[in-house]
Amino acid sequence: TPPLELTLVVAATARDMGIGANGGLPWTGLRKEMAYFARVTKRGDGNAVIMGRKTWDSIPPKFRPLRGRLNIVISRSFVPGLPKDPAGGPDASHVEASSLETALEYLRQRRKAAGTPGSGRVFVIGGAQIYAAALGLADARRVLLTRIMSDFSCDTFFPLALGSPTNAAAEAMADAPKWVQRSRAEHAAWIGEEVPEDVQTDNGTEYEFQMWERV
Ligand code: NDP
To answer: 36, 96, 119, 185 — which has fewest CB within 10 A?
Structure first.
C-alpha cells in the first residue's frame, strides 16, 4: 500500500482560479475533461475521492456515489469521530466524515488491507472549502489542474494561485509552500496515460491539463 498522500483535482479558470458559480460548475459540456477526471481518479485499485457536502449536493443523484471509487463526504453535521462503514460496505454507498482529518484517519485504517476500497490513491475533488482544508495539510502533494483559458464568471475560487495572476485568496498564502508545474512526461507517468500537448476544446471552451507538485 502506497503512503497516504493527497492529490487535489480541480478545473479552474486561468484568470482568477474560478471553480464554481451558484453551487454548480461555471461551465457546461466539458465532456472530454469529465472523461479525463473519471479515468484518472479510477485508474488502479481502491481509489478514494473526498469532497465537501456542497460538492456532493451538486452531483445529480443518479451519478453519485461516483462509480468505481470510495466516496467520502465531509460535513459538520455528520457524527464526530472515526467514520463508520456504510451499510453494504464502502463500495455500495458513501462514507460520511465530520472533518477531513477523520476522513484521513478512516483511510489510514482501511489501508492496512491492500486492495480494499480506500487503499489506493486518494483524491480531493472539491470544493473550495475542502481544497483549503487539504492544502493546510503536509499530505497534500499534488494538484491535477485543468486550466480553463476561456473566461467564466465565478463565485467560488481555488485557494492557491498556481500561476494565475489575480487570485486574492491565493495571494494571502504567499508564504505558503512552493508549488511547481511538472513536465508533460512527468504528468503522463503519474496519471498513467498520455497528456495531450495542445489546447483542448470542448463545447467552445479551451483548456489544458497540468500537474503541479509541492516542493
Ligand atoms: P464544498 O464542496 O467545499 O463543501 C462545503 C461544505 O463542506 C461545508 O458547508 C460543510 O458542510 C463542509 N465543510 C467544510 N469545511 C469543513 C470542515 N473543516 N469540517 C467539516 N466539514 C466541513 O463547498 P464550496 O462552496 O467551497 O464549493 C462548492 C462549489 O465548488 C460548487 O460551485 C461546485 O460546483 C464547485 N466545484 C468545482 C470544482 C471544479 O473542479 N471546478 C470541483 C468541486 C466543486 P456542512 O455545511 O454540511 O456542515
So the answer is: 185
Q: Do residues 179 and 142 touch, judged by C-beta distance below 8 A? A: no
Domain 6-214 class in CATH = alpha beta
Q: Which residue has the cell 467552445?
A: 204
From the CB of residue 31, how many other CB atoms can be counted at a distance below 10 Å? 10
Q: Which of 106, 50, 102, 105 is nearest to 81 (CA)?
A: 102
Does the pLDDT of residue 60 top 60, yes or no? yes
Provide Rg for the chain, Cα atoms.
17
- Beta strand 179-181 with 94-97 is unpaired
What number does the ligand 1 atom closest to the CA of 76 have? 48
CB atoms within 10 A of CB 35: 11
Residue 133 CB less than 6 A away from ligand 1: yes
Domain boundaries, the chain: 6-214
Pocket test for ligand 1, best of 8, 76, 100, 148 (most atoms within 8 A of CB): 76
Tens digit of each residue's pLDDT (9 = 90 or more) over 174-209: 556 689 999 999 999 999 999 999 899 999 999 999
Paired with 145 in beta bridges are 10, 210
One-letter amino acid at 80 equals: P
Q: Contact at 8 Å (CB) between 198 and 127?
A: no
